[in-house]
Write a structure and sequence with these properties.
Order of helices and strands: EEHHEEEEHEEEHEEHHEHHHHHEH
Number of domains: 3
Strand content: 15-25%
CATH architecture of the largest domain: Orthogonal Bundle
Radius of gyration: 33 Å
């Protein structure tokens, strides 16, 4: 039977579904009879409860379930016959007037949009590249040294200098009154490593063990503690201990302590270089992928299904709640989170998802088995036991689906870079590593 589809606005459609009342009633009666075999009621043995009692107790619920099932089935059949790709769940409403012995329902829903991707040859994409320099290797080795440093007490007449670890008692007051978080005892930090506000760090420099001083400190306007942000406090600080750092030499002993098989400085630097190159590769790919996705999104024309945007917004809110819960926020599950905060992000995700799907379909950019295998092998190389990591991925469908999504995005990135006007740029190592 031909299905009449009414176009309401852009992607919104409506169809009318009609169901024989006799079919609904027959299904309800059959389900109630089946239910009667196991239902329990006071004064009756199991399976002996009269149908009138069963119908009175469960009739409405069973009727609701039957109608939902039958309407859902009819909706699927109608949209398949009309060759419609439904985006999101339909809104079903029973019509006030129906043909004799029939029940009529209006199903209002959205369909997937037509995605038109413009001429990618006209799109401009900035493609960055970064080299792992000897200076970058030197800095990483220094970080590894710091991770294995020790500290020894300074002489009492020696003042604290940069890289020293100091143990202090402090108390801050604003307008003569203490404030939350402004007091601590036996608090440790390392001078010059950004653990404290610059004014606090500077004030402690030069102080000796047993010495006290009071100094003013202005909290930045964007300080994370809103109660003190933009205000000036007076801090009383007493230094109880000063320890100088002792860095290990860059030698075979350090290399061995870091698990380098060869146990040589050259082997250590080679290992650091390989790890940095792996990290640079992933960061460069992520940055170039983001540039490609921006260009691809700008080149496409489509309408966004509101149902998909709403669904994506809900997912982002749930992720935010999960994050709040993990941070220990009380009542995270019921915390008010306005949907408007996430709507732009949801719209971008839906838009990109639809555009990427169309590009993949039109150009056969699906992930191939050998690509999945190669990507997992590459991921596993940064772990101590690569074979176990590979089994971990291969043994879980959800994890493999995530890998497949990444590989498809990589295929899309490569395809667009071959088609677009590419502007190559060499990005300094430090800039790449510090970029958000």
């Amino acid at each position: 039977m031909a299905v009449t589809v009414e176009t309401l606005e852009k992607l919104e459609r409506r169809i009318t579904l009609t169901l024989p009342a006799a079919t609904i009633n027959g299904d309800v009666e059959a389900r109630l009879k089946k239910l009667a075999r196991t239902v329990k009621a006071d004064g009756f043995r199991p399976g002996k409860v009269p149908m009138s009692v069963v119908a009175q107790r469960y009739g409405y619920q069973v009727q609701y379930e039957v109608v939902n099932d039958r309407v859902g089935q009819a909706f699927n059949e109608a949209t398949n016959e009309a060759k419609l790709r439904v985006a999101g769940a339909p809104r079903i409403a029973q019509k006030d007037e129906s043909p004799a012995d029939m029940l009529a329902f209006d199903a209002t829903f959205e369909v997937y949009p037509e995605v038109v991707i413009g001429d990618l040859a006209q799109a401009e994409v900035e493609r960055v590249a970064t080299e792992v320099t000897e200076a970058a290797i030197d800095r990483t080795v220094e970080i590894l040294r710091k991770q294995r440093r020790t500290f020894g007490l300074r002489a009492k007449d020696e003042g604290a200098i940069e890289t020293d670890r100091v143990t202090i008692d402090f108390e801050g007051k604003i307008d003569g009154e203490p404030f939350a978080g402004g007091k601590a005892e036996a608090f440790q930090f390392i001078i010059g490593e950004g653990q404290m506000l610059a004014q606090f760090d500077q004030a402690v420099r030069g102080m000796k063990a047993g010495e006290s001083k009071t100094f003013p400190l202005s909290f930045p306007a964007d300080y994370h503690g809103q109660d003190v942000a933009g205000k000036e406090a007076d801090f009383l600080v007493t230094v109880s201990k000063i320890e100088a750092q002792n860095l290990p030499d860059i030698d075979e002993a350090l290399a061995k302590s870091l698990g380098i098989k060869e146990g040589t400085v050259e082997g250590l630097r080679d290992d650091v270089k390989k790890n940095l190159e792996r990290e640079v590769k992933f960061r460069v790919l992520a940055r170039n992928k983001a540039a490609v996705m921006d260009a691809l999104s700008n080149a496409a024309t489509l309408d966004l299904p509101n149902a998909l945007v709403a669904g994506e917004t809900d997912r982002l809110i749930e992720n935010a709640r999960a994050d709040l819960k993990q941070r220990g926020v009380k009542d995270a599950a019921t915390a008010p989170i306005p949907a408007e905060i996430f709507k732009p992000q949801a719209e971008r995700r839906v838009r990109l998802g639809l555009v990427v799907a169309e590009l993949v379909r039109a150009n056969n950019l699906r992930a191939q088995p050998e690509q999945l295998q190669a990507h997992i092998e590459e991921l596993s190389q940064s772990y101590e036991k690569p074979s176990e990591v590979m089994r971990w991925y291969l043994g879980d469908r959800q994890r493999m689906a995530e890998v497949e999504a990444v590989v498809i995005e990589n295929n899309v990135t490569e395809f667009v870079l071959k088609s677009a006007k590419v502007i190559d740029k060499v990005l300094p190592f430090d800039e790449l590593m510090t970029a958000a």
